[in-house]
Amino acid sequence: VEEVIEQADYLYGSGETEKLYRLLVQHKTSGDAELLWRLARASRDLAQLSSTSAEAKKQLVYEALEYAKQALEKNESNFAAHKWYAICISDVGDYEGIKAKIANAFVIKEHFQRAIELNPKDATSIHLMGIWCYSFADMPWYQRKIAAMLFATPPTSTYKEALRYFHMAEEADPNFYSKNLLYLGKTYLKLNNKKMALLWLSKAKEYPAHTEEDKQVQKEALELLNSI
């Protein structure tokens, strides 16, 4: 298991998504939480590739959730298992409609919070908690209406709460992720603080693009900067 994990982490660091998935999927019955959450992540990364067909993407998204769930069953105190379980539930929501997405929101929040409790230094979990807050602060009225029908107390948040998490993530690991910089800028825009928005959006725009996502972030940051 140690060897496989070492190999997997090397492939992950090198951006070898397909090779990584092929390596880990051979060990899907291993029952090791460390392997299983990595397999969930690899399945999800493969689903995100632009070369993956819509049909394969859907299958991989559900597969990823299954592996994350198994990782959690094997080890309740593994922070990464909680984090990837929450991420995968959120992905599956894209296929199950707005009601399921809102209904899953509480579960997602709970697992992100548990991941942060178990590892307060993991900037990604903190960032994702910020994204959760941002999306509920930014929720369109018709979704709020559905949420109010589904729950006595529907999930809510504020831009200020989102901002707090994005800053906490930055403190835990400065400059770790282009999207965190982008969301700091976007949140400051929502709070009408143009000076701070300009600062963070400029950082996002100048972030070196290593992945497809980084390129998207640069593009969005540039568009927002031009609109200010």
Automatic annotation (TrEMBL):
Q: What is its main location?
A: cytoplasm
Cellular localisation: Cytoplasm, Cytoskeleton
GO CC annotation: what is one?
mitochondrion
Q: Which SUPFAM superfamilies match?
A: TPR-like (SSF48452)
Instruction: List the molecular function annotations (GO) for this entry.
Output: microtubule binding
Q: Does the keyword Repeat apply?
A: yes
User: Does the UniProt entry include the keyword Transport?
Assistant: no
**The entry's keywords:** Cytoplasm, Cytoskeleton, Repeat, TPR repeat
State the coiled-coil residue ranges.
Answer: none
- Indicate the family of this protein: Belongs to the RMDN family.
Its assembly, as annotated, is: Interacts with microtubules.
Matches recorded under PANTHER family: REGULATOR OF MICROTUBULE DYNAMICS PROTEIN, REGULATOR OF MICROTUBULE DYNAMICS PROTEIN 1
The name this protein carries in UniProt is Regulator of microtubule dynamics protein 1
Q: Which organism is it from?
A: Crypturellus undulatus
Give the gene name.
Rmdn1
